[in-house]
Specification:
Elements: E1 3-7, E2 10-13, E3 18-25, E4 33-39, E5 46-51, E6 58-60, E7 68-73, E8 78-83, E9 92-100, E10 103-107, E11 111-116
Parallel strand pairs: 2-11
Antiparallel strand pairs: 1-3, 3-8, 4-5, 4-9, 5-6, 7-8, 9-10, 9-11
């Protein structure tokens, strides 16, 4: 049974930082790409960032490029999302997902990030 558990969300002031973690279990972690997505109230879920199996390939949404950094530690089966210079529009529930490019088949339960102005 594959499980993804996000943590690290919380309330932060604009300009602040948070680091989200996504701990995975249940299948060979290093074989799969991991992505972060977010969903704000009343909006559709959107892509934030993703990282390939080795960590050498990353992708970011334009809205977070230069502020967020995705990384992974395959030994700890964990992916991180370092979020700096946070803005109120970054407020959302953040989800991690695991899969292959174009298809994420397992999702976590999400962690709330709230950025106050």
């Amino acid at each position: 049974q594959v499980q993804l558990v996000e943590s690290g969300g919380g309330l932060v002031q604009a300009g602040g930082s948070l680091r989200l973690s996504c701990a995975a279990s249940g299948r060979t972690f290093s074989h799969y790409r991991v992505g972060w997505f977010r969903q704000a109230p009343g909006k559709e879920r959107e892509f934030v960032a993703s990282i390939g199996w080795s960590g050498s390939t990353t992708s970011y949404a334009n809205s977070v490029k230069g502020r967020f950094t995705i990384s992974r530690d395959n030994a700890k089966t964990t992916v991180y999302l370092q979020m700096n210079s946070l803005k109120p529009e970054d407020t959302a529930v953040y989800y991690c997902a695991q899969g292959v490019p174009g298809k994420y088949d397992y999702w976590g339960q999400g962690t709330q990030v709230t950025v106050s102005s």
